């Protein structure tokens, strides 16, 4: 893919100002974004007219790391096989603007993890309110007009003027420590038939199921969920609750939803894939409950009222167990539900 050059402007994928076809069916999405580095990739694939469903397999390997949930990882090793794309590290050793000119001019997109403080599409959230790294994919650079186009979360956006200066010429600690960066090599891009893509994704499914934790992650989370909620609703307030939810409920619910979308797509027209559809339904129900708990928790944080989360979390754990059992995900140690100890098994 050759860049479109207009004066000092470099743009690899043109026409995005007119909108992008959603990468997934968004009509019933509960979580528009997962909050992970996977989000802008899904939008990029849609802009390239590639089917993003094949990239969702890592959402199945969700795990709980004691005080937070993991997030879906980008399966970098599968990008060449699925789409002919390659992701390569970029070492920032000179001004970032020079690297953007060099790489975009060579036909490569640039992946950055800048401070979301200066990303205007997060207005009302991080924009000029809090500092947090967030993954963007740079596609369009117009240095003369101090304007930059980028994929971020579930859309394509532009920043300009002082936000452009803050990204390209940061001050303070950011000037000493440049953002992590990589480039996306587009020269080998390939659009595979749907059946071929599903076949490759099914091979990837086996690898993802091998990564499913061997101790029930939802039950491990359940042991501390109510205790943390009680503290947050009485001592922490709305801000602390949302921070807790971003590390817990969002990655749990969003990953379960992405996994359900992946499994439903993977089943295709295969009459022998009923177990995939049933597993997808179980994980979808988990996502529904996580969203409901998020909304209930937000209201409770605003009013200061207590919230009993135990029954909802237990139902979430059962849906996880059912989904993983249908998929035959390894030798999972299913922790017994509360009160089940001592009963005949």
TrEMBL record:
<dbReference type="InterPro" id="IPR014989">
    <property type="entry name" value="DUF1839"/>
</dbReference>
<dbReference type="Pfam" id="PF08893">
    <property type="entry name" value="DUF1839"/>
</dbReference>
<protein>
    <recommendedName>
        <fullName>DUF1839 family protein</fullName>
    </recommendedName>
</protein>
């Amino acid at each position: 893919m050759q860049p479109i050059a207009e004066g000092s402007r470099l743009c690899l994928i043109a026409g995005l100002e007119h909108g992008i076809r959603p990468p997934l069916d968004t009509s019933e999405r509960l979580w528009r974004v997962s909050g992970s580095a996977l989000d802008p990739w899904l939008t990029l694939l849609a802009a390239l007219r590639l089917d993003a469903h094949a990239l969702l397999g890592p959402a199945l390997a969700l795990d709980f790391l004691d005080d937070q949930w993991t997030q879906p990882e980008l399966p970098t090793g599968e990008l060449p096989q699925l789409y002919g794309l390659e992701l390569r590290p970029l070492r920032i050793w000179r001004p970032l603007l020079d690297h953007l000119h060099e790489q975009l001019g060579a036909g490569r997109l640039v992946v950055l993890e800048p401070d979301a403080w200066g990303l205007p599409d997060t207005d009302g959230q991080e924009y000029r309110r809090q500092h947090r790294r967030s993954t963007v994919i740079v596609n369009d650079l117009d240095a003369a007009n101090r304007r930059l186009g980028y994929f971020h979360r579930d859309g394509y956006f532009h920043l300009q003027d002082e936000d452009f200066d803050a990204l390209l010429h940061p001050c303070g600690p950011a000037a000493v420590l440049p953002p992590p960066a990589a480039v996306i090599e587009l020269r080998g891009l390939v659009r595979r038939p749907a059946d071929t893509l599903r076949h490759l994704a099914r091979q990837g499914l086996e690898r993802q199921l091998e990564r499913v934790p061997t101790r029930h992650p939802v039950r491990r989370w359940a042991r501390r969920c109510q205790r943390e909620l009680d503290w947050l609703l009485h001592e922490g307030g709305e801000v602390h609750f949302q921070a807790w939810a971003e590390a817990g409920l969002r990655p749990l619910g969003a990953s379960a939803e992405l996994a359900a979308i992946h499994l439903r797509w993977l089943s295709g027209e295969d009459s022998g894939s009923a177990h995939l559809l049933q597993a997808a339904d179980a994980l979808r129900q988990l996502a529904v409950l996580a969203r409901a708990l998020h909304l209930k928790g937000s209201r409770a944080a605003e009013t200061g009222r207590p919230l009993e989360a135990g029954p909802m979390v237990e139902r979430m754990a059962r849906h996880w167990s059912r989904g993983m059992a249908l998929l035959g995900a390894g030798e999972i140690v299913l922790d017994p539900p509360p009160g089940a100890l001592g009963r005949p098994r």
